[in-house]
Write a structure and sequence with these properties.
- With 232 residues, this protein is mainly α.
- It contains 9 helices and no strands.
- Helix 2 (15-45) runs antiparallel to helix 3 (47-67), helix 5 runs antiparallel to helix 6 (116-145) and helix 5 (83-114) runs antiparallel to helix 8 (179-205).
- Mean pLDDT is 76; it is low at 72-82.
Length: 232
């Protein structure tokens, strides 16, 4: 939803800011996956079961990506004279982002269930990378309809899939939660976040020439998470 505000206030934005925050989000999610989520799962379940869950998470999001491709932002914010195509692009982008947001809601829910501070950190990281996704939805809708309200509401609906994913997780998983199920789910969530980071965040953040800004964001995100975990 915040990403859609660009249609209200911003006519042009610096790509370097976008690169840094996408890299930062990726750094946080990668670090958390390999340091906080996967090791406890391996300890509780053993390497085989934990890795099955980890790669299961990767395969799930990969299948979603193949079935409904997640178009990159740069391809969606270029204005065109063909309003109908732009409107269709915005709608399908909103649909694709909405579907991809379901597992992210699951990731935040399960992380917060185990450690509320970890859940907050992940929520912030995922929220940061969802801002440009809001831009991806809002810009073609805005150019097609000239309506800032429509751009806003389409972005809102695509983002609403995230808490919906958490609600579904509550309804489906809560009755069956046990230490083994939690450990399996954490490894599964780690796979989801690693795929999202390597498939979406990092390639997108490195699209422009100043890719060193993206790398700085990745390292900063990892350092922030390491510091916060030490202070915990």
């Amino acid at each position: 939803m915040v990403g859609s505000f660009i249609t209200f206030f911003i006519r042009d934005f610096k790509k370097s800011y976008l690169q840094f925050f996408l890299g930062l989000s990726g750094g946080v999610m990668i670090y958390v996956s390999f340091v906080e989520l996967l090791p406890p799962s391996i300890k509780a379940l053993g390497a085989l079961k934990a890795n099955i869950a980890f790669f299961g998470g990767i395969i799930l999001v990969m299948l979603l990506d193949f079935l409904i491709p997640h178009e990159y932002i740069a391809e969606r914010i270029k204005p065109s004279t063909h309003d109908k195509k732009l409107m269709a692009a915005g709608i399908f982008t909103a649909l694709g982002i909405g579907i991809h947001n379901f597992p992210e809601g699951l990731a935040v829910f399960m992380s917060a269930l185990v450690n509320i501070k970890l859940g907050v950190a992940l929520a912030i990281a995922i929220a940061l990378h969802n801002i440009p996704e809001g831009i991806a939805v809002a810009m073609p809708i805005f150019y097609a309809t000239k309506s800032k309200k429509k751009a806003f509401w389409y972005s809102f609906l695509s983002g609403f899939a995230e808490p919906a994913g958490a609600v579904i997780a509550i309804l489906l998983l809560m009755p069956f939660l046990s230490p083994a199920v939690i450990s399996f789910t954490l490894a599964f969530v780690a796979g989801i976040m690693v795929f999202i980071s390597f498939d979406e965040l990092l390639p997108l953040s490195c699209q422009s020439d100043g890719y060193h800004i993206s790398i700085l964001g990745v390292i900063t995100g990892m350092a922030i998470m390491a510091t916060s975990l030490i202070l915990m």
